[in-house]
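Progress against Task 2.4 (sequence-to-structure conversion) is shown through the following example record, which the project officer requested during the mid-term review.
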Amino acid sequence: MRLRYVDGRVRIDGSSDAFGDADSPVVSDSRRVDALHYRALRDALRAADPDLEDEVLDPVPGPVLACSLSLRPYQREALRRWQSDERGVVVLPTGAGKTYVGMAAIDAVGGPTLVVVPTLELVDQWRDELACFEVPVSEFTGRAKEFAPITVTTYDSAYTHAPTLGNRFEFVLFDEVHHLAAEKYQRIAERMAAPARMGLTATYERDDDRHTRLVRLLGGKVYEIGTDDLTGEYLSTYTVERITVELTPEEREAYDEHAAVFRNYVAFSNVSLDAPDGYRNLVIRSGNDPRAWRAIRAKETSRKIAFNAESKLDELASLLCECRDEGDRVIVFTRYNDLVHVVADRFLIPAITYRTPTDERRAILSGFKTGRYDAIVSSQVLDEGVDVPDANVGIILSGTGSEREYRQRLGRILRPSERSARLYELVSADTGEVRTADRRRV
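Structure tokens generated for the chain above:
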């Protein structure tokens, strides 16, 4: 019997009684299986054939990886639970040190490791953190394609080059692992033969329930601890306050007009928005139904009216003034980039969007860290994957009903501090934004 790695799959040459086992992941007629099943297949075949020739892994050469880390009790417990099978997802709040758990797992495995992250900015952050291993740390991205004992890549690059990467590492670590459950990204885990695999995230559940795929891809959730369990000792204590504002008469008239267009179409078409894919199906229908297209457009217009209400800016002015008097560090969050620029221009604070060049973004965050700026405003780009300096006040001008987004924004202000953190939500009264805010929960 011989096992080989071929284009993201494990090929089985020879014959074995193990093929008759109903629990075997092998499809007997093709004698090939996704590399995801390599460990289970290897163990099953070794039990049946001690002379098994295993040629699947071709690990990147290098010394045993080791780094001395001091972990907090909950981080040690997370690592301990993961080590029982060297598979699974660890869920820790933003600011609770997920990276250190991942680094401790690299130390525990000791073999060549691939770290998969969502953005190039996170590639740079992980490479900086991994310097403690005192071995070459490379990246396999659009900027450079190099192998080292520790290699950091993005989900996009890992997806494109999964057959090339798939058998070069003994451990694969997925940061912000909720991305892995996406339709295309799950192929990364399926093509990886790494026997040890870990996922890290602050927000395991996805609104589309695709997080259930992670059980098959990684082994499921092995440890989770909530924000409130860590506040006081490891994270800042915090308060959340919702501030309801009124639309101007002109905004109210426009909002009601557009909201009615959407409601009337939904009633006419008998679309159930309560269904899991209800709104998505409506969007699909708008491709060939002009009335559906007008309804979707009216919905988006009414949403922007609520999100961009003038009274929100007046309330924001009061909050920023109060925060400056208290010496607070403030992050203002919005849904849309146009509101980011309105806030930046009106209050003369730096703005960060997905269009902000990397060097400019770093300069802004550096100025925020040193105190040159006491406030910054951003769209969803700061929700995930960016190392944001300590802030103690967050102001949500607009957002989605996503629990993940809400947790990530809260996590941005919970770095350990003697000062209590404050999160404000500004919501337009008697609009769909109230229901959206109600869906957010910690």
